């Protein structure tokens, strides 16, 4: 039996919603087992809120001693197995809120009418078929929650509750609007969501005091004009209905602050929306809107416009992603210039080297069969524009096929593109190995980088194969593609099953991360690659003049051109192909194109300086690679864009990939890279597949002897090292190598190594390491630093990332670049790095096992140093996880390798799920690998909560410590709650689901609060209570990102700068 002292230590200050006000009360949450309450409970005279939960399904016994709690204002008996309200409850004269939800078929005693201070009654999910008559005798009742009581009947004399302000009837399966509700003229909040109402009565306009109206998922296909008479309405939720239009009377709701129209079928939005001058949040997600009225930009109070999931062309999605400010700037610019409708599609040609990509691109461009010479092969990426007619412009990306270029390819793979994968039919053989090289690898890449992308398979060089060969090979390719698609689906379903099992067995405090992973993996099921047709075979080999005259058949590549044009007009594939842009923006982009194609002509037309100075010549030669902000302003003036109106168009062009801008990198912030392929062309000289050619250019040959060139080539091939001065020689003249290296480091292609001569800085030789070139294994000499067996006086802390199935090529190399700022004294090899961090040795390795890839990072030290060891190795894992965010289709999980298994040298060591440590965790953790017969310290298994933004709370020693402890507990995480609830608001349910709440949980929160902000805050507080130390700001930020609430994330990082570190 609990003592009064132990119960008092569990007291805490907690906010409760009572009649629209949040009141802080001394609260106790108590699990009751067995049926009776602890005797010492009744001595807690200071107790103001009591929440009882039963471990079993037996009915809780509430004795008359409960009446001793004379200050009790809130009593929650949620799901306590009650069949009637205990008599002891009637003896609580100060009771204001009584929660009886999920007590099936509960009976209310007549004595309940004695609770004259009762203002909130929760009877949700009690399987009631009619409202208990005694409820009508509660004179001060203001909030009545009857949700999820299927087909409940409301008596006509419901109007006797003349103080009732809130009535919740959501999920009652009602097929019509309850007539009794129309008599509740004092009603301020009405919830009829998740019913089958279909139509709203005209009498609804009589509820003139309504401020909150929830009608989501009620089957509404029209909104009656009478709704416009509810002029006090502040919150209106019409989401998940069949609405295609809204009446113009919607503009009369001038008090509305939150309007939720998500998941309807809206085709248009009325201009009258512009009259909602107090509107703060407008939710339009997942409708069929192609345009937004310009009046939206006039909503001066609007802080959030949520339009994800619409095929918007005015404004384009790239504008909407930037937020309401960008949308206002867009419409402002449309006022100043003529609207232009442009049609633009990105086409990406992928495939192995010598697959014929460049030949096909040039053939389509000039409209004539063309073969490419070997010396003209694409090195990295070449981008051209192709306009087969006046209605469409294709931006064609031709990717070099050699492995060394793959690192640069990934940065150009975007969702809204058509991918053509070329397969060389001449060299293709019907084997698993050749399929993987020619097709499977590229499809895996697309599935991981741009899940849901549109793909077409093209068989090239069919002229070099017999007809029966073409049929056999294309059938083999198609068959293996189908098998690969089945494998992706199997992997997804296996991961979902694993996560569902984890979620069911997860202990309190550890479920929210698993729930997030499960929700995300389920979404991937709907984002699989979309294949267009079967394998289309082409040849671009020119025919002889005589054969051309004799043949009446069109060249095979013409069929591909026809296919492309047909698919362009398929709105299910490319719903946002066309877009509306201001004429000034279109002109600015055209002028940029001039600079890309003929910068020398721009030079000749510039009459501002006739001196022909070498400085000016150098400036224009550099314009081939980048522009300064000043040069952009000059182009802007030619497009009638003043400098203050330039940033919106630059931001738009950056979003669509026309330009590159890096305002957060000091070396690059003053430049605009107006021709991305040219930037990659700079890398091309350093990532050439023929390293001998790299060191045979005239500038290199003139500067270095043959022996020096041989040594430089060995440095690059064997150690991945290149000196800065050598790199400078490889670049075009007058190119600032600092800009190039800043770009390369941003892309994760190299890192900087400074010389060791501390006496004379001028003698330091600056090197860059390019991990991609490394091919040797771990040096033997490192075994003395990191022996195979863990020393007796040390422990090994090892974090593991298990990547299921496809692992992006070059991921470990980019990871090794990303960690460089965190480590020192490093040694690199093909699939590993050994370095030091805070004087601890760290070992990072990548290891493929069957179909999976394991990336491990480990350190060693004494058990007493476990906390420091976590601080050493965990930031490295965060770098890897951040990289994986660029590959949304990659399936991975994070683990902590059992330290006992490692030290014992066991094969296949047990992998604990990575999670934060909580107060409930013990000192040791048993090892399942050996049937729990041995254990290891919990310090080597559970992540310290400080690494995810949460400290362990200090235990309270007395009732006087309640307030102080509450403040200390909330200092790290609760400080963010106010900002989040102010900005998430109507999407609080999505956030709740993302944090692992079930539908009944969410309903329970819904009933306790009167508006979105309070429900959001309650959700966060409840999540914090459930998850304990696992409730961290990292988890919360990840949840917000998953919901794409980037305005909230950005706002948090701006308000609390430490979050973005």
UniProtKB/TrEMBL annotation:
<dbReference type="InterPro" id="IPR003591">
    <property type="entry name" value="Leu-rich_rpt_typical-subtyp"/>
</dbReference>
<dbReference type="InterPro" id="IPR011029">
    <property type="entry name" value="DEATH-like_dom_sf"/>
</dbReference>
<dbReference type="Pfam" id="PF13855">
    <property type="entry name" value="LRR_8"/>
</dbReference>
<keyword id="KW-0547">Nucleotide-binding</keyword>
<dbReference type="Pfam" id="PF08477">
    <property type="entry name" value="Roc"/>
</dbReference>
<dbReference type="GO" id="GO:0009966">
    <property type="term" value="P:regulation of signal transduction"/>
</dbReference>
<dbReference type="InterPro" id="IPR055414">
    <property type="entry name" value="LRR_R13L4/SHOC2-like"/>
</dbReference>
<dbReference type="InterPro" id="IPR057263">
    <property type="entry name" value="COR-B"/>
</dbReference>
<dbReference type="InterPro" id="IPR000488">
    <property type="entry name" value="Death_dom"/>
</dbReference>
<dbReference type="InterPro" id="IPR020859">
    <property type="entry name" value="ROC"/>
</dbReference>
<dbReference type="GO" id="GO:0007165">
    <property type="term" value="P:signal transduction"/>
</dbReference>
<dbReference type="GO" id="GO:0005737">
    <property type="term" value="C:cytoplasm"/>
</dbReference>
<keyword id="KW-0677">Repeat</keyword>
<dbReference type="InterPro" id="IPR050216">
    <property type="entry name" value="LRR_domain-containing"/>
</dbReference>
<dbReference type="InterPro" id="IPR032675">
    <property type="entry name" value="LRR_dom_sf"/>
</dbReference>
<dbReference type="Pfam" id="PF25497">
    <property type="entry name" value="COR-B"/>
</dbReference>
<feature type="domain" description="Roc">
    <location>
        <begin position="338"/>
        <end position="524"/>
    </location>
</feature>
<protein>
    <submittedName>
        <fullName>Malignant fibrous histiocytoma-amplified sequence 1 homolog</fullName>
    </submittedName>
</protein>
<feature type="coiled-coil region">
    <location>
        <begin position="482"/>
        <end position="509"/>
    </location>
</feature>
<dbReference type="InterPro" id="IPR001611">
    <property type="entry name" value="Leu-rich_rpt"/>
</dbReference>
<dbReference type="InterPro" id="IPR027417">
    <property type="entry name" value="P-loop_NTPase"/>
</dbReference>
<dbReference type="Pfam" id="PF00531">
    <property type="entry name" value="Death"/>
</dbReference>
<dbReference type="Pfam" id="PF23598">
    <property type="entry name" value="LRR_14"/>
</dbReference>
<keyword id="KW-0433">Leucine-rich repeat</keyword>
<dbReference type="GO" id="GO:0000166">
    <property type="term" value="F:nucleotide binding"/>
</dbReference>
<keyword id="KW-0175">Coiled coil</keyword>
<feature type="domain" description="Death">
    <location>
        <begin position="973"/>
        <end position="1056"/>
    </location>
</feature>
């Amino acid at each position: 039996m609990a003592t009064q002292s132990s119960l008092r230590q569990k007291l805490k200050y907690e906010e409760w919603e009572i009649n629209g006000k949040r009141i802080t009360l001394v609260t106790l949450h108590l699990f009751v087992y067995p049926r009776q309450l602890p005797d010492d409970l009744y001595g807690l005279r200071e107790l103001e809120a009591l929440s009882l939960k039963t471990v079993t399904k037996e009915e809780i016994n509430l004795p008359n001693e409960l009446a001793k709690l004379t200050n009790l204002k809130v009593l929650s008996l949620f799901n306590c197995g009650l069949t009637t309200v205990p008599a002891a409850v009637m003896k609580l004269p100060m009771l204001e809120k009584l929660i009886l939800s999920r007590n099936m078929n509960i009976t209310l005693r007549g004595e309940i009418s004695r609770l004259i201070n009762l203002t909130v009654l929760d009877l949700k999910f009690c399987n009631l078929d009619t409202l208990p008559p005694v409820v009508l005798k509660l004179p001060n009742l203001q909030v009545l929650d009857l949700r999820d009581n299927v087909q409940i009947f409301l008596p006509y004399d419901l109007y006797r509750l003349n103080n009732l302000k809130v009535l919740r009837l959501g999920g009652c399966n009602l097929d019509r609007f309850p007539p009794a509700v129309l008599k509740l003229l004092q009603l301020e909040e009405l919830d009829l969501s998740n019913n089958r109402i279909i139509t709203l009565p005209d009498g609804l306009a009589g509820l003139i005091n309504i401020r909150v109206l929830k009608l989501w998922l009620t089957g509404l296909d029209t909104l009656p004009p009478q709704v416009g008479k509810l002029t006090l309405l502040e919150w209106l939720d019409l989401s998940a209905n069949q609405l295609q239009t809204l009446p113009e009377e919607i503009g009369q709701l001038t008090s509305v602050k939150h309007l939720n129209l998500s998941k309807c079928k809206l085709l248009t939005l009325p201009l009258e929306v512009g009259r909602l001058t107090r509107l703060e949040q407008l939710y339009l997600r997942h409708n069929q809107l192609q345009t937004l009225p310009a009046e939206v930009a006039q909503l001066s109070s609007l802080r959030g416009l949520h339009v994800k999931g619409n095929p918007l062309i005015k404004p384009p999605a790239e504008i909407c992603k930037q937020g309401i400010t960008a949308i206002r700037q867009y419409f402002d610019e449309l006022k100043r210039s003529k609207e232009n409708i442009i049609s633009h599609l990105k086409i990406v040609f992928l495939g192995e080297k010598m697959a014929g990509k460049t030949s096909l691109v040039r053939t389509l461009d000039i409209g004539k069969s063309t073969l490419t010479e070997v010396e003209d092969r694409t090195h990295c990426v070449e981008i051209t524009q192709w306009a087969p007619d006046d209605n469409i412009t294709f931006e064609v990306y031709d990717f070099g096929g050699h492995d060394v270029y793959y690192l640069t390819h990934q940065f150009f793979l975007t969702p809204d593109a058509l991918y053509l994968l070329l397969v060389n039919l001449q060299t293709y053989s019907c084997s698993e190995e050749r399929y993987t090289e020619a097709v499977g690898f590229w499809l895996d890449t697309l599935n991981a980088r741009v899940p849901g992308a549109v793909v077409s398979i093209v068989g090239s060089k069919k002229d070099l194969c017999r007809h029966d060969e073409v049929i056999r090979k294309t059938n083999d390719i198609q068959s293996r593609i189908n098998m690969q698609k089945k494998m992706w689906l199997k992997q997804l379903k296996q991961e979902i099953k694993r996560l569902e099992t984890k979620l069911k067995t997860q202990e309190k405090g550890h479920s929210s991360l698993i729930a997030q992973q499960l929700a995300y993996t389920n979404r991937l099921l709907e984002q699989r690659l979309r294949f267009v047709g079967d394998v289309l075979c082409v040849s671009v080999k020119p025919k002889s003049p005589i054969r051309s005259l004799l043949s009446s058949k069109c060249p095979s590549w013409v069929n591909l051109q026809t296919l492309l044009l047909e698919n362009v007009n398929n709105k299910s594939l490319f719903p946002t192909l066309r877009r509306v842009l201001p004429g000034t923006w279109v002109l600015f982009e055209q002028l940029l194109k001039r600079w890309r194609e003929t910068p020398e002509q721009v030079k000749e037309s510039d009459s501002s300086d006739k001196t022909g100075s070498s400085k000016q010549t150098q400036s224009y030669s550099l314009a081939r690679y980048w522009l300064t902000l000043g040069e952009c302003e000059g182009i802007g003036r030619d497009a009638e864009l003043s400098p203050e109106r330039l940033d919106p168009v630059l931001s738009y062009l950056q979003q669509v990939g026309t330009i590159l801008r890096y305002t957060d990198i000091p070396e690059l912030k003053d430049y605009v890279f107006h021709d991305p392929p040219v930037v990659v062309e700079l890398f091309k000289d350093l990532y050439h597949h023929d390293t001998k050619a790299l060191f045979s250019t005239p500038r290199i040959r003139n500067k270095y002897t043959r022996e020096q060139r041989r040594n430089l080539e060995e440095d690059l091939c064997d150690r991945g090292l290149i000196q800065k001065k050598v790199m400078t020689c490889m670049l075009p003249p007058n190119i600032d190598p600092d800009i190039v290296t800043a770009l390369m480091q941003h892309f994760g292609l190299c890192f900087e190594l400074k010389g060791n001569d501390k006496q004379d800085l001028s003698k330091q030789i600056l090197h860059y390491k390019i991990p991609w070139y490394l091919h040797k294994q771990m040096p033997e000499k490192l075994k003395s630093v990191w022996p195979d067996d863990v020393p007796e006086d040390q422990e090994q802390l090892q974090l593991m990332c298990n990547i299921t199935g496809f692992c992006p090529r070059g991921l470990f190399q980019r990871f090794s670049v990303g960690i460089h700022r965190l480590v020192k004294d490093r040694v690199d090899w093909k699939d590993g790095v050994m370095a030091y961090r805070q004087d601890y040795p760290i070992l990072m390795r990548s290891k493929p096992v069957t179909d999976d890839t394991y990336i491990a990072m480990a350190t060693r030290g004494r058990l007493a140093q476990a906390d420091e060891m976590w601080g050493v190795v965990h930031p490295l894992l965060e770098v890897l996880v951040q990289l994986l965010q660029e590959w949304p289709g990659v399936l991975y999980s994070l683990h902590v390798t059992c330290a006992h298994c490692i030290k014992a040298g066991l094969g296949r060591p047990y992998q604990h799920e990575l999670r934060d440590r909580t107060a409930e965790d013990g000192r040791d953790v048993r090892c399942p690998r050996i049937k729990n017969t041995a254990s290891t310290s919990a310090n080597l298994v559970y992540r310290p909560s400080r690494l995810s933004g949460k400290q362990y709370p200090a235990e309270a020693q007395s009732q006087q410590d309640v307030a102080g402890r509450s403040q200390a507990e909330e200092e790290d995480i609760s400080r963010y709650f106010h900002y989040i609830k102010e900005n998430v608001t109507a999407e609080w349910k999505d956030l709740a689901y993302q944090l692992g709440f079930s539908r009944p949980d969410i309903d329970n929160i819904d009933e306790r609060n009167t508006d979105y902000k309070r429900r959001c805050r309650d959700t966060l507080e409840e999540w914090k209570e459930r998850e304990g130390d696992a409730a961290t700001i990292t988890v919360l930020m990840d949840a917000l990102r998953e919901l794409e609430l980037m305005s909230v994330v950005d706002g948090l990082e701006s308000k609390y700068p430490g979050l973005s570190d």
